[in-house]
Amino acid sequence: QAQLVESGGGLVQAGGSLRLSCAASGRTFSTAAMGWFRQAPGKEREIVAAMGLSGRITYYADSVRGRFTISRDNAKNTVYLQMNGLKPEGTAVYYCAASSGSVIVTTPQRYAYWGQGTQVTVSS
Question: Please, are residues 38 and 15 in contact by the beta-carbon 8 Å criterion?
Fold first, then answer.
């Protein structure tokens, strides 16, 4: 059983930056692809970025490509999401998730473990 704990959310002005962290416990992290999702009020949860186990392969949603960067430190069991150039439409609860496999997947249903979420609010 894995536990994921996100941190780093907050209030930021448009154009600003935040770095989210997700600390994982348990052995799942060492075998899992990891993803970041977000969910805005009244909207479905959507993928933001994902990274395979090796860290060599990444995926980004079109809406964040070029502004967000996902990374992982397997020695620290931690995955990060560096968010630059934040926009008001990026306001959402951001979730870290661990897949049941090592290959990148982009749908929430393919992720077995979830953090509690961290709020990101971008003011205009």
Answer: no
Q: Provide the pLDDT for residue 25.
A: 87
**Burial of 121: CB neighbours in 10 Å, binned 0-12, 13-18, 19+:** middle
SS (H, E, C) 35-104: EEEEECCCCCCEEEEEECCCCCCEEECCCCCCCEEEEEECCCCEEEEEECCCCHHHCEEEEEEEECCCCC
Q: pLDDT value at position 86?
A: 98
Question: How do residues 38-55 score in pLDDT, each as one tens digit?
Answer: 999 999 999 999 999 888
Maximum CA pair distance of the chain? 41
Residue keyed to tokens 């962290």:
21
Q: Are 51 and 71 in contact (CB under 8 A)?
A: yes
